[in-house]
Structure formats: structure tokens, C-alpha cells
Amino acid sequence: MDTIPLVHASLGEQELAAVAEVFRSGWPAGQGPRGPALERELAERFGVDGAVAVSNCGAALHLALLALGVRPGDEVIVADYTFPAPAHAVRYVDAVPVFADVRADTGTVDPQAVADLIGPRTVGVIAVDTVGLPADYADLKSITDRYGLFLVEDAACAVGATYQGRPAGALAPVACLSFHGRKGITSGEGGALLTTDPSLAADARLRSSFGIESIFEQARVIGLPIPEFTEIGYNYKLSDIAAAILRVQLGRIDALLDRRRACAERYRELLTGEELLTLPHVPTDRTHAWQSYLVTLDPSVDRAGVAADLRARGVGCGHGTWACHLQPVYETKQQCPVSADLFQRTLAIPMHAELGMNQIERVAETLRGSVRTHASPHRT
Ligand SMILES: *Cc1c(COP(=O)(O)O)cnc(C)c1O
Asked: Which residues have C-beta atoms less than 6 Å from ligand 1?
């Protein structure tokens, strides 16, 4: 019996050819000719003024908070139900993450919860497009505008998704993308900061390369100008190898997303009516990038039992994502009951662009059988 993996990165001959070209060029490091080319293509695709290619989304979030001027002791409200990169980034700059609970139906941050947490030290909000589904940006933007706060979109999982007709990655003045191997398009590791503010992009770009301009560009100047370091920057550059791969992947977004969407539709057909499962809800004003397919199990179902069953039968699965406020590192006494409940009950089942329809059928059948086996009338 073959195993159906939870995730699989769709990288092939086209990407290999692009890498071979970088090898021949002799410049595999960051800021070569392919980085700026990728940045221009990102800016065009997302309709933003500035795009900065960086080593990962965690770096993009860190650079965003530095460029936005977040200071030690400031409070930044973050969506609670997510991979904890946003809260980590807040801690990188010695600020305080304040966790906002999420909508039960979408897992995205609840705008009312955000509004309720605003206090005298609040400087901004990081919303998350939860496993590929955009948050409520119209409501979030009106709240952040009213209080003069910044709004950052963590679109790590959402490349290809839309909200009210606009692309995820362009739903807030600053957005961060991930090109990690588990996301919709990938270079193994990689990320980008997108912004409508060119000066913010310039600031992030400088800090992404130790605080100096591009060494590659400097070498092409006639004469010997010696750049000065004016910032303690970081090395968050994206290599030209990764940039070359991403330029190919960018051209494949729509095709890869069509495949994921077809998988999601088939899961819905096969799993609808199973009363022990709640399927993902996508509000009509937005589309999902399907970075993950998360089902929510009825409280009577033993999730660990189901997961063990699935894995034993060659079906990959996972717990979904995290309730950040429950992670010991943050030492918070806050409560986000909806997020905590999702964290207990969600199960990620295989989702990637190379799943076959016969595999989807096997996953659905195995899952249906297993949730019934592990449902107990005594657990509620
Ligand atoms: C994956 C992920 C990140 C981290 O992305 P990296 O590129 O691995 O740093 C950040 N935020 C969210 C919501 C994610 O899912």
C-alpha cells in the first residue's frame, strides 16, 4: 500500500533548468540579477509599489516590524490561531504580542476581538490568512484606521487566494509571503515583503543585507565607491538560486492552485453529510489558497486515535496549526477559547497539487471509517 503524503512540493524540470542557468552565471548568492527580476515580477503580480525578496517569511515579518518602527514595550495584536511566526517577530523587537481570538467558522482573526484588545500601548495588528484563507480585511482596516494603528497581512499560506476581488498579499499596506516547501509556491525556503510604501520597502531591503546596498550592484560601478554601514542589518537575503526557482513557480501559481482547488472540491463532495466532521468554510467574498485542508472533528471523536489510524493506513495527517497563546514561550495568561478549541479538534489531511483523485477517495473513505470508530458517546 502506498503512502499518501500530507504535503508535497511541486518542483520539476523547469525549475531545474532555471537553477542550471544560475550555476553557469557564476553568481548564486543574493541580490544578483535574478533577485531584482523576481521583485519586479512580484510587484507587478500583486499590484504593489515595493517587493523585497528575503530568505523566509519570518525574516519578512521581522523586517516589517523594524521598518514600521515598533519599539520595545509596544503591544502588537496578533491572530492567535496560526503558526507562531507573527508573535515570534513581535518578540524579536522586544515588543509584546497580544493574542486575538479567531472566528469559529474560518479560523481567521475576529475583528471584534482585535477591537476589544486595543489599549494605550497598541501600535499595530498582524492578521493571518489562516492556512490560505484571507481574514476580514475590510473590518480590520476600518479598526486600524480609526485608531491610527498599522496593519500587516501574514499571507504566508495565501499566495493565489483573493478577498473581495483583490489578491492575498495586497490586502494590507504591508504583507509577508512564505515560499517554504509546504506553501503553495516554493523555493525550499524563501519569502517576500510586499508594500504600498516604497520607503518602507527601501528600509526593509537595506536591513535585509547587513545594512548596505547590493554588493553585486556596487561591483558594476566604475571607480571604487566604498559603501558605509549605517544600520545594524541582518542577512535575510534570498539567494539567486532560490529567486530563479521562484520566477518559474510564480508562472505556475494558477495551474498549481487549480489542482489544489479540485482536491478541495472533491473532499467536499465525498465528506459532506458526515456529521462527525465540519468541513472548511469559505465566505462568498473570498477564495482559499488551500495551503492545508483542515477538518474539525466532533468533540466526541478521539483525534489522536483517528490520526494513529490514518497513519497506520498510509494516510498522512497532522494537527493543523497552533493556538499561539497556549505556547509556553509567550508566558501569557490570556485566553482565546475559540482558537484553543480549534487547536484541540482540527485535523489536516493530505493537500497538495499532485494528489490523484483516487488518493482523495482513499483518504475520505479512511477518514469516514476512522472518525466513526473513534467517536465515543461518553465524550462531549
Ligand atoms: C509558514 C508560516 C510562516 C513562516 O514562514 P517561513 O517562510 O517558514 O518563515 C509564517 N506565518 C504563517 C502564517 C505560516 O504559515
From this structure: 56-58, 82-83, 85, 128, 154, 156-157, 178, 180, 191
Residue 246 and residue 264 share a domain:
no
Neighbours of 327 (CB within 10 A): 14
| Rounded average pLDDT per 10-residue block, the chain, 380 residues | 94 98 96 95 97 98 98 98 98 98 98 98 98 98 98 98 98 98 98 98 96 83 85 96 98 98 98 97 98 98 98 97 98 97 98 98 98 82
Asked if 214 and 262 sit in the same domain, the reply is no
Residue 307 sits in a domain whose CATH number is 3.90.1150.10
In this structure, the residue with its CA closest to atom 2 of ligand 1 is 156
What's the CA gap between 111 and 13, in Å, rounded? 44
Cell 453529510 locates to 273
- Tell me how far the alpha carbon of residue 15 lies from the centroid of ligand 1, in angstroms: 22
Radius of gyration, CA atoms only, the chain? 21
- Whether residues 98 and 244 share a domain: the answer is yes
Four-CA torsion 297, 105, 195, 31, nearest 10 degrees: 10
CATH number at residue 80: 3.40.640.10
Q: Rounded to the nearest 5 degrees, what angle is found at the Cα of 347, between the Cα atoms of 105 and 3?
A: 145
Pick the last residue of a domain from 226, 251, 276.
251
